[in-house]
Backbone:
């Protein structure tokens, strides 16, 4: 993983002013299907922890931002191709992803990965584990040599367990917490510590924008507002 270097606050604010004055709108890409991190509410708008976080970061950086919904399996390619300018979608910082895009400093610590099943007696190592495609959870199961079946969306992983196609699903605990009790789903005691925290993803050529968001994230850490937001949405442990 590349070492992320924070710019000074003055440099970041200057960059923010330059972007704002240029009239450009910074487009934030998210999945919109991973509550409580990001989801589409009843009004058809992006909502959740990352919507509130992204809006506050843009406000602090004095940037004009708009939200773009994009499916998870193409979220990095569409960033690189220019369909939006930053990813804010519960994306864990990993060495593999960092070879393709840049990351800000993490805005949450790593969220534990947990298993959801129809019975507390399920052994993931001996069964079939569902995971969303191209996630750290899918990679983890494959690395263990266990049987993994991947699905494009989080909802499909849950459906696979309910239908018996998979014995358990491995995903962020904060997401699975919203599903416990649905149609008899239970959380297994076993959890996995994988991933290096969650950050915003940006094109490697957009160093100024990365530094701008880095400074905004740091300012929220410094005044305690980021921990308040994490606690409000219960997405991870606090810094």
Residues:
């Amino acid at each position: 993983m590349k070492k992320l270097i924070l710019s000074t606050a003055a440099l970041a604010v200057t960059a923010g002013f330059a972007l704002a004055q240029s009239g450009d709108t910074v487009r934030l890409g998210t999945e919109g299907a991973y509550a409580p991190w990001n989801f589409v509410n009843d009004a058809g708008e992006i909502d959740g922890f990352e919507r509130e976080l992204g809006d506050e970061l843009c406000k602090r950086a004095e940037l004009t931002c708009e939200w773009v919904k994009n499916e998870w399996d193409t979220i990095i390619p569409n960033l690189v191709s220019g369909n939006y300018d930053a990813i804010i979608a519960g994306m864990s910082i990993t060495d593999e992803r960092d070879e393709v895009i840049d990351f800000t400093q993490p805005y949450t610590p790593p969220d534990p990965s947990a298993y959801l099943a129809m019975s507390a007696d399920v052994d993931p190592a001996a069964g079939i584990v569902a995971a969303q495609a191209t996630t750290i959870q899918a990679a983890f199961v494959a690395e263990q040599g266990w049987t993994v079946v991947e699905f494009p969306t989080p909802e499909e992983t849950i459906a696979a367990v309910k239908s018996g196609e998979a014995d358990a699903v491995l995903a962020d605990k904060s997401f699975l917490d919203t599903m416990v009790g649905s149609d008899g789903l239970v959380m297994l005691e076993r959890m996995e510590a994988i991933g290096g925290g969650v950050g915003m993803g940006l094109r490697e050529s957009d160093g100024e924008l990365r530094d701008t968001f880095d400074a905004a994230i740091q300012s929220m850490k410094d005044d305690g507002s980021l921990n308040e937001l994490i606690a409000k949405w219960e997405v991870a442990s606090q810094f």
Remarks:
- Confidence is low (pLDDT under 50) at residues 1-22.
- The chain is about 35% helix and 20% strand.
- The CA atoms of residues 130 and 157 lie 5 Å apart.
- The first helix runs from residue 9 to 21.
